[in-house]
Amino acid sequence: MKSWYNDPNMLGRHFLVYSEKAPRVKRQYTICSSMGTEVRAALLELARSAGKRDIEFNYRIMLGQDTSSIDLTLKTYGVAKGLATRIHQSQVINKAQVGEEGKSEFKDDSVYFIKGPMGRGLQMQPSGLHVAFCAGTGVLVFLDLVAHLLILNVFNATGRDLPEEMSRFYQPGFKLHLYVSF
Question: Where are the alpha helices (DSSP H) in the chain?
Answer without folding.
Answer: 37-48, 83-89, 91-94, 140-158, 164-169
